[in-house]
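Q: What structure does this chain adopt?
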Amino acid sequence: MIREFVAGSVSAILVALIWHRVNVLPAVFFAGLFAALYHFVGDRGVKKNFAVVDAEKSAGLLKFEEIGGQQTAKKELLEALDFIRHPERVAMMGIRPLKGILLVGPPGTGKTLLAKAAAAYTESVFLAASGSEFIEMYAGVGAQRVRQIFNKARGAALKEKKNSAIIFIDEIEILGGKRGSHTSHHEYDQTLNQLLVEMDGLTVDDRVRTLLIGATNRADLLDSALTRPGRIDRIVQVDLPDLEARKEILRLHAGNKPLDEVDLVSVAKETFGFSGAQLESVANEAAILAMREQMQKIQHRHFIEAIDKVILGEKLECRPDKDDLWRVAVHEIGHALASELWRPGSVSTITTTPRGKALGYMRQSPERDSYLYTQEYLEGQIAIMVAGAAAEEIVLGNRSTGSANDFQQAVEASKRIVAAGMSSLGVVSVDDLPASLLHKVIQQIIADQQENVKQQLSLKRELLVALAEVLFSEEKVTGDFLRCQLFGEAKKNIA
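A:
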């Protein structure tokens, strides 16, 4: 009613002014400008519809028991949630309730899943947001949105007659980045300052106890004032799953799928370095492959092919010509032979089927999960990396551009040797080394392994050619077949 009255009055005034030949264009321009600013910075710019997650509905969707692996992360998060669910125990033990928890880990490891499970587990009000929702180009907007989400959490808790609330902020490094890192944009700093003030206000005597849960894969970007105890009280590592955790994750994701004698333990061994999201994708892609073949159950080979698909992508329609295909076969068999010579039992599959940007590949299956590497191990990896180019030289007399990525990986492995003090330079600071000296040492490390692997493969040139011919015609060779041929030849030589 009031809007209609104001609009009618303004229209009447404009008509009267125009009737009296008054130039109203400046007034109309500035009125339009103020209206636009109000539209983008006013109610629509500052106010944000932060969603309150319905815990009762979420309870039927995801529980902590349904998240595979991450036992330590789940334990610490559950403990923090129990602090706000059972305040009488906290008060009896004289414990200060936690104000903030930071979930840190690579993408796909389950940080958001843990937050969703927290919504289902807790009887608190649960608000979810992304760090990017707080940042705008207009000064003060982000700080206002921080105040808004904390006020909404408290208000929603009081409205629903609950005494606790949880705020989850994904990608919190956008909101909580180090102050001063954005030279021409103080909006970031103002937004972080407001977050720090709000967290300082989370006192024990509040009518509503509030817990902030943040998730990030770039903890190094966060401001130290945010991560100190009293604000972020716990930093929980949500790392890539180990072997046992991968088995558990695969069992969970395969639980609703019809399997036909699938060895999930073997699949878990071949997926070292996979995140939980990638393992879910392996199970999903295996089911898709089985459905594509119109099969009623998923077989073990579907899982093996799904691993390749997750790593490299779908098979390509284009095929290299015979000369290039022969070179690829020689190259990959070179990798495979070197891998078996340096790491017996390590080869899983060799193929010349193009996937993604790779014309062929050799996939290794590590015997166990390794997190520390010796000099001998890294040198062995370099030998395996350069073995493809060495095989091309031995059989074809020259190299190709297909070895470029292999050499780049060899350079990175060599840098790790230098950085760990295992090179001829001893303990050094890689950043302070002259570029020419670092290049010389890396070149020497790689050259030594090139010479070594070339000698080993030259002794097995006939086997190299024979295996390359099999791979050329069959397109795919298993590690078991390779080992049978390699060690069968070794027994003949001994006899």
